[in-house]
Every structure is written in C-alpha cells, then in structure tokens.
Amino acid sequence: MPAPIVIAIPKGRILSEAVPLLERAGIVPEPAFADADSRALRFTTGRADIDLIRVRAFDVATFVAYGAAHLGIVGSDVLAEFGYPELYAPVDLGIGHCRLSVAEPAAPAAQDDPRGWSHVRIATKYPRLTAAHFADRGVQAECINLNGAMELAPTLGLAPRIVDLVSSGRTLKENGLVEVEVIAKVSSRLIVNRAAFKTRADIVPLVEAFRRAVEVADAV
Amino acid sequence: MPAPIVIAIPKGRILSEAVPLLERAGIVPEPAFADADSRALRFTTGRADIDLIRVRAFDVATFVAYGAAHLGIVGSDVLAEFGYPELYAPVDLGIGHCRLSVAEPAAPAAQDDPRGWSHVRIATKYPRLTAAHFADRGVQAECINLNGAMELAPTLGLAPRIVDLVSSGRTLKENGLVEVEVIAKVSSRLIVNRAAFKTRADIVPLVEAFRRAVEVADAV
C-alpha cells in the first residue's frame, strides 16, 4: 500500500466550512480535527488511505507546492500571492467567500484623488498582489508587511491605507475604515501538487469526489 | 498634551507574562486587554498618556521600527530576525525565556555528520537567522518559510530539519524530533523607536520604570 494521501486544511476561518465539504467527499476526520484546542498537527480520517494536516492558511500552498501534502484547501488570495507553478487548482470549492480590498480611513487625513497617485504606502500581508495591482495603473506601492492587525496602521500613521481580506466589513468599521476598491473576489480552491497528480492514480478519483461534493452543496 | 505613548505587546505566549510586568511598571491595562477573545486591537491603561496595542509577535518590531508604536515588548529572536536599525533595545525584561534551536527526527532517515554538510534544507519562520547561523560555518541553508507547524516538515519530507523556538521541548517530542543545536537563547526585550526616544522626553522615565520593574521581579 502506498503512503496515505495527505490533505492540508487551513486553521481558522475556513475550517468550519471545510469539514462538511470533506464529509460530503467521503472523508470523515477523527473528532480531534475540529477541536481548535488540540495540539495535534496530523489527523486520521474514516479512510485509511487519507490523512489530514491542519496548518496556517498561508502555509497550505507551501506544503502542497513542495509535495509534503498531496492536496490542500486554500483561498484564491493565498494561491495568487505565492504563485507556485507546482500547484494545480482544479476545483472552486464555493466556500470561504470574501474580497481582497483596499481600505482607508472613513475621513482620510488628506483628501487626495487616487487617479493622481504615483506612489502609495500600504500595510498588508499580500505584498506581491498589492504591488501588482497598483503597478497595473503605473503606481508604485511601498508595502509594509504585517501578519495581522493591519487595521491599526492608518490610525497609528504606519500607512494611510491597507490591503486585506474583507468579509462582512465589521472589522473595518470598528476601526474607522472604509473599503474603497476590490482587488479580487476570493473563494477557497482545491489544490493538487502537479507531480503527485501525474504519478498517483488514487488522486484523480479524490478530485472528482470533491467536485461532486461541491455540486451537491450547490444543489441544496 | 501630546498624543499618548503607544506600546505594542505581542499576542499569545508572552502576554500573560507581560501583564504583571506592565503593572509593576505602573501601567494597568483595561480588563479587555487580557481577554484573548476580544476583537479590539487598541486598549487604554490606568495612565491617560499610555495606550497599548496587541499585535502578533512578528509584527511588534515592525510597528515600533516605523514609529507607529513608540515602545514594544518583543522576543530577542524577532529582533534579530528583522534587524531593524531604527530600534533601540535598552532592557532585557527577563520573561519569555526559550531557545532558537535546530531540530531533526530522533531517528534521522540518513545518518549524516553535520561537520560534513555543505548544504542543508530547513523549514523555519526565521530564514535570516537560520541562513546566517549556517553561513558562519560555510554551510548554505535553503530555507522553506513556514508560519507554523514546522514540526510536520521532517515527517512529510518537506525538509529534514527545522529551526524553531523550543521551550519545554514537548512539541518536538510529540512529533518525534530532538533538539540538536541551540542557535540562540531567547528572552523578551523592551524596544524603543530611536527617533521617538530622542524627541519625546516622556519616554525616558518610562524606560526607567520598566528597568525597575525587572529589578523588583528579579529580587522576588
């Protein structure tokens, strides 16, 4: 028997949406998997040939790109930020919907017209997507890389604007910010390591199981 | 009255040790500050001239280096990884003790002698410190950047070794790894933005208050 297929699942926001989808695809995780307090990193499932690992959203793409996991569930934001050529993303899972957006204070310190910018300073954990977005219109973005709490940046003078995921907009509002531009619509994708996809025959039916699970969910 | 002094405190591991130290330095945070579930990012204290922000350990140095926070509490590991010249680190706070170490499987796949290496592959969130450590002995380290769960890397074939913080060693043991080399001893430091330190007279007595708070703690 070959080594089990390893699927990387992101901690946090997506996990609760991913579990029902996994189950519809015939993969029932051991109970500890849904326990956010569990220190374990690797979990068994009802299928002896499939294990799960629970890692940070930004690490899912890295684990799959290097072949340490065969498949993964990851936001299209992370997929685009890393741009790993080793990844194949065959299924839009229809979960984890949000937007990658530019936000600024509801009452900006200096009223300026974005069409006149030649340079912007942005706090974000998406430096590559941010730079590419602004470069498209000839604007140079100086990105200050943060891992969280970027909503603090405008008030504290770190950067007048941020680029971050926006879902309900509640966090922005609580910090006096407004969404001024959508860079990309985001949803979670099933990703597969290209080399594993070509060499392991048991991965193709698994991808199909995910595709059917999404169709079932859409039909409900 | 000038704007309040802003102190950046790391979420997680250090927070519970930092609160008693802040209180000994005369800074009593509002109750929500110690509540890990609070969504708030900025907090008042018993002193009207001092606010706290609660950010990720890896972001504390960035907030202070750019002057968005005036002071911060940060591990010497993060300080060394970023190497911001804008930071002054006048006080070792004597909390957050741990080690930055190299670890590998208790039973390595291939027995090799570290003295013979010319190249190593390492999973870590400290790519600069790791590369510098190995470069010192003429070894090139190829770092795979992860934000967490690097203990999974050796088993899954991502990298045969990791560089990570080790405290009790329990997490390593649970994942079949052993600590083979200490790169640096780590403790938390009080950091100050150099420009703020020179221009705001109210920062010097605050640094002294932290220094006394540490001396009191040491004497207990």
Structure description:
The structure is a homodimer of 220-residue chains. With 220 residues, chain A is an alpha/beta fold. Chain A folds into two domains: 5-96 and 187-219, D-Maltodextrin-Binding Protein, domain 2 (3-Layer(aba) Sandwich); 98-185, Periplasmic binding protein-like II (D-Maltodextrin-Binding Protein, domain 2). Helix content of chain A is 30%, strand content 31%. Chain A has eight helices and eleven strands. Chain A has helices at residues 15-24, 57-65, 76-82, 127-135, 153-156, 170-174, 194-199, 203-219; strands at 5-10, 42-44, 50-55, 71-75, 87-92, 98-105, 119-124, 140-145, 161-166, 177-186, 188-193. In chain A, a hairpin with a 5-residue loop joins strand 2 and strand 3.
What's the end-to-end separation of chain A, in Å? Answer: 37 Å
Largest interface: A-B, 33 and 33 residues
User: Can you count the helices of chain A?
Assistant: 8
Shape of chain A: elongated
Tally of individual domains of chain A: 2
The level 1 CATH classification of the largest domain in chain A is: Alpha Beta
Radius of gyration of chain A: 19 Å
Into which percentage range does the β-strand content of chain A fall? 25-35%
State the CATH architecture of the largest domain in chain A.
3-Layer(aba) Sandwich
**What is the residue-averaged pLDDT of chain A?**
93
Strand count of chain A: 11
